[in-house]
Write a structure and sequence with these properties.
The protein contains 17 helices and twelve strands. The chain is an alpha+beta fold and about 525 residues long. The strands form four sheets. A six-stranded antiparallel beta sheet has the order 1-7-8-10-9-3. The protein has a two-stranded antiparallel sheet with strand order 2-4. Strands 5-6 form a two-stranded antiparallel sheet. The protein is globular. Bound molecules: adenosine monophosphate (AMP) and magnesium ion. The site of adenosine monophosphate (AMP) has 17 residues, from loops.
Length: about 525
C-alpha cells in the first residue's frame, strides 16, 4: 500500500516535548506523539469502498494483511508519526479544562485526488489525554459511529467520514448505564477521516491558558490549509475566519434539523472548525417529532442538547470560539456582529428549509403561521417525522380532506386522534392546499423536489441496535445491509422497505434505542 502521507499538522505546529505515554497536562503544544496499542486479533468487519478509493487504496489492498495491520494500529506506516491532539472544551455549559484525543490517534494526512484527508484511529488505546479512561472503544459504539457518519454524508449533511471498522480481538469493560453493572464487550477500532479534526476546543485550550503564541500558530495553520482563500493572517482575516466557521456551523445544524438528527453531546470539544458533524456518541434520530427530545440519558434532566435547542447551542458554542479567538483580534465588535447575525440568518434559513420540506419554494407572508401550526400539530400526538414528510409528497391539492389519510402511516396511534385535533389537522391541510396552489410547480415536480429533501431512510436508533445485537453474536449481515440502505436515503429502494417503518414498540424504552449514555 503506497499512501501519500503528509504530516503538516505535526510538522508545522509545536509538539509536546515529552514523548512518554503518560496522562498529564500538556502545555504550549498542539499535540503529543503517541503510538497506537497493539491489538490481539484484528478482524476487518467492513470497509467503505468510496473512501478507500479517495485515499488511493485499491479494493484488493483493503482486503490485505497490511491494511488490517495499519488500520487496527498494529503496524505504523514508515512515513507516519502518530499523535494525539491537545484540546479543551466546554461540557454541558461549563469549562472542563484539558480534554484532548483520549482515544483517537492521528496517523497523518493523505493528499490524493486534490483532497486532504486526516486519518484517525478511534479506540486505539491510551494517550496523554485519556484522563481516567482506557482509550478503547467497544463494537457497539464503533458500529454506531461508522454507519451514522456515512449515513449523514449520503443524506447531504457535512460530516467526518469512515474508512474501516475493525474488531480488535480484545475485550473492553464498560458500565453502559453507569449503575454498577460493568460487563466485557468486544473492542473495535474505527478509522475515520476528515480534512481536519481540529475543534473549537483546540483554540479554547490556548486562550484559557493565555498562551497566545500557540493560539496564533494554530489559527494561522488552520487558515493556511482550510481557509486559504482568506489570505495572509491579520486581525481582519481572523474575523473573516470566524464568520466562515459560523456560516459552516449554521449549515451543519440546519441540516441536522432537516433530517431529524440529534447529536446528543454538543460540547465545544465536539464542534469541528470545518462545520462537520463530529464525534458520534449518544446521538439519535427523531422518530416521533418532538422539539424536546434528546437521546442522551446523561442530559435527561436539563435537556440542554435537545433537538429544538441545537441551533441555539451552536450559537452558544460559537460564542466560546469567539472568546477564544478574541486575543488575536482585540476588538469585540466584528465578532459580536457575526454572533448576532447568526440568529437572524438561522431563522431565515430555517423557515426556507421547513417550507421546502412541504414543497414550498417561494416565500409568502403566511408561511410562518403555516409552519408554526404544523410544528404544534406534529407534537400533539406522536407523529413519525421521517414518514410524515416523505408520505406528504403524495398529498393531493384538490383533496385536502384526504390529507390525514395520506400521512396516516406516520401516526403511532391514529385511533387516539380526538375529533378536535382531527379538525385542526383538516384545517391545516386546507390551508396547505391553498398555499401549494400559489407555487408554480406541477404535482410531479413538487414530489420530485420534496423527495430530494425528505429522506425515506434515516438510521433509526433501533435499526443500528438490531445490527449491534447481531454483530455481538458474530453476525455482521445487518451492518452490511444497513450500509447499503444508507447509500441512497432519498431513493425508494423497494427491497429495503422494511426499514421504512415506525419504531417498533419494543424499542420505545430500550437501552441503545431511546436511551443512550456516553459509555462507549
Ligand atoms: P466525548 O464525550 O466522546 O466527546 O469525549 C470527551 C473526552 O473524553 C474526549 O477528550 C475523549 O477523548 C475522552 N474519552 C472518551 N472516551 C474515552 C475513552 N474510552 N478513553 C479515553 N478517553 C476517552
Ligand atoms: Mg469528543
Amino acid at each position: 500500500m503506497k499512501l501519500n502521507l503528509k504530516n503538516t499538522f505535526s510538522k508545522e505546529l509545536p509538539a509536546d516535548t515529552n514523548t512518554e505515554n503518560s496522562r498529564r497536562q500538556v502545555t504550549a503544544a498542539c499535540f503529543s506523539f503517541v503510538n497506537p496499542k497493539k491489538t490481539a486479533k484484528p478482524e476487518l468487519l467492513h470497509v467503505v469502498p468510496s473512501m478507500a478509493h479517495a485515499l488511493g487504496i485499491s479494493e484488493e489492498e483493503t482486503q490485505s494483511k497490511g491494511f488490517l495491520e495499519i488500520f487496527s494500529g498494529n503496524a505504523i506506516l514508515p512515513s507516519s508519526k502518530p499523535y494525539a491532539m491537545c484540546y479543551g472544551g466546554h461540557q454541558f455549559g461549563n469549562w472542563a479544562g484539558q480534554l484532548g484525543d483520549g482515544r483517537a490517534i492521528n496517523l497523518g494526512e493523505i493528499e490524493h485526488l486534490g483532497q486532504r484527508w486526516a486519518l484517525q484511529l478511534k479506540g486505539a488505546g491510551e494517550t496523554p489525554y485519556s484522563r481516567s479512561a482506557d482509550g478503547l472503544a467497544v463494537l457497539r459504539s464503533s458500529i454506531r459511529e461508522y454507519l451514522c457518519s456515512e449515513a449523514m454524508h449520503y443524506l447531504g449533511v457535512p460530516t467526518t467520514r469512515a474508512l474501516s471498522l475493525i474488531l480488535t480481538g480484545d475485550k473492553v469493560l464498560r458500565d453502559v448505564l453507569y449503575n454498577g453493572n460493568a460487563a466485557y464487550e468486544k473492542g473495535a477500532v474505527v478509522t475515520r477521516l476528515a480534512p481536519s479534526f481540529i475543534r473549537f476546543g483546540n483554540f479554547e485550550i490556548f486562550s484559557s491558558r493565555n498562551d497566545i503564541a500557540t493560539l496564533k500558530k494554530l489559527t494561522d495553520y488552520t487558515i493556511k490549509y482550510f481557509y486559504p482563500h482568506l489570505g495572509e493572517p491579520s486581525k481582519k482575516v481572523y474575523v473573516s475566519f470566524f464568520k466562515e466557521v459560523a456560516e459552516k456551523s449554521l449549515e451543519m445544524v440546519l441540516n441536522w434539523q432537516r433530517v431529524g438528527f440529534v447529536h446528543g453531546v454538543m460540547n465545544t470539544d465536539n464542534m469541528s472548525i470545518l462545520g462537520l458533524t463530529i464525534d458520534y456518541g449518544p446521538y439519535g434520530w427523531l422518530e416521533g417529532y418532538d422539539l424536546g427530545w434528546t437521546p442522551n440519558t446523561t442530559d435527561s434532566q436539563h435537556k440542554r442538547y435537545r433537538y429544538g435547542n441545537q441551533p441555539q447551542v451552536v450559537q452558544w458554542n460559537l460564542y466560546q470560539l469567539a472568546n477564544a479567538l478574541y486575543p488575536l483580534i482585540e476588538e469585540a465588535e466584528g465578532l459580536e456582529q457575526i454572533l448576532h447575525d447568526f440568529s437572524t440568518n438561522y431563522d431565515c434559513k430555517e423557515q426556507k428549509m421547513l417550507a421546502s420540506k412541504l414543497g414550498l419554494f417561494t416565500t409568502k407572508q403566511e408561511d410562518a403561521k403555516l409552519l408554526h401550526t404544523l410544528q404544534e400539530l406534529l407534537q400533539i400526538i406522536e407523529v413519525d417525522m421521517t414518514i410524515f414528510y416523505r408520505d406528504l409528497a403524495a398529498f393531493k391539492v384538490d383533496n385536502p380532506l384526504d390529507g390525514l389519510q395520506v400521512v396516516q402511516n406516520a401516526f403511532y396511534a391514529i385511533n387516539e386522534l380526538t375529533l378536535d385535533v382531527k379538525e385542526k389537522w383538516n384545517i391545516w391541510f386546507k390551508d396547505y392546499a391553498e398555499r401549494i396552489k400559489q407555487e408554480n410547480l406541477s404535482a410531479k415536480e413538487r414530489i420530485e423536489k420534496m423527495n430530494k429533501i425528505n429522506p425515506k431512510y434515516v438510521l433509526r436508533n433501533y435499526m443500528v441496535q438490531v445490527a449491534i445485537d447481531a454483530a455481538d453474536k458474530g453476525n455482521y449481515s445487518v451492518v452490511n445491509e444497513l450500509f447499503n440502505v444508507i447509500l441512497n436515503p432519498y431513493n425508494e429502494q423497494p427491497k429495503y422497505t422494511k426499514w421504512y417503518a415506525k419504531r417498533p414498540e419494543w424499542a420505545r424504552n430500550k437501552v441503545g434505542c431511546s436511551m443512550l449514555s456516553c459509555s462507549s
